[in-house]
Structure prediction request, 44 residues.
Amino acid sequence: MKLATRLLIRSLLFIVAILAISGLTWGCAESSAQSLSLSVLLIF
Prediction:
C-alpha cells in the first residue's frame, strides 16, 4: 500500500510540474519561473 501511495504522489507531482511548465510557456516567463523554482524547492 505504501508503494501505491508513493507512486500516486509522484504522478501527482509530475502532473503539477507539467502544468507549471505549460503555465511558464503561456504566462509571463519570469513570474512562472519563480513559482516553478519555489515549487521545486518545496518538493525537494
Observations:
- DSSP finds two helices and no strands in the chain.
- The longest helix spans residues 2-26.
- The helical segments are 2-26, 29-43.
